[in-house]
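chain below, 274 aa
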Amino acid sequence: MKKFETFTEWTTSFANQGCFDHINAMTAFDEWLGWPSTEALQTLQPDELKNLNNKTIQFVPQSAEQDYSAVAYEEYIYETGKVPTREKSWHDIFGALSWCMFPQTKATINQLHYHDIKQFGTQQRSSLRNALTLFDECGVVLVTTNQTLLTALKQHQWQQAFVELRHLWHQASAEGVAVYQFGHANYEMLTKPYVGLTGKWLVIDASAEIAGLPLNVQYRLVDQKLANALKTGTLNDNSNLYPLPLLGVPNWYDANEDFRFYNNTEYFRPKPNK
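prediction:
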């Protein structure tokens, strides 16, 4: 994976790409004037958020000398409700925004991590925690019942999925697919997009007609469905996660309006033979 360099000076010039449309609409992200404080991030919560240990979610500064392991991080959030947030960190800013946009799902992921750690210990990360971590960082949620499109994605038939069926993406119809960015690492890397950037998609089997509702209502419904899916074992391992070249998603990246973009087989790779 490409080594990722963060910005040191504030800019949201990258946010004019379509992949930021939802976060711009939900939080006016593209209008922010500087690095947000934890107090400013707190104001973006739609309501007072609580985790599944009934602790109020609070974004709190993480000092330079604090260095949480993945285990300590999840335990700390579950036991206290406090989410450590580093200064001038895109990763942590988008992590906080994920809490604001998907509160039920983030709380469910945190609880699943916590219970798994208590049951199996810290020596080796379980298949459940591997899957939860991968989705938390890189997940994209597709809401659709269109099996033709899903099969094309699973089989890496990128021309069919992104060109032939392009008209179905973001469409509020029975055959369409609604798309919701979840992974905060995806958002971080999309601040400096590069060919090769790939997320992991998970499907919610529901009509994409949801995309015709107000955006905040869409997120509330998707969050509820996603949290319920995780509670019932959808991510016990990585088997339900599939690669998604993020820059190939229609309307997410300007360069893919030229369909020759999809001819790059180093990025849009055929499915490996097993």
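The longest strand covers residues 198-204. The beta strands are 58-62, 82-86, 139-143, 178-181, 198-204, 242-245.
thats it, cya
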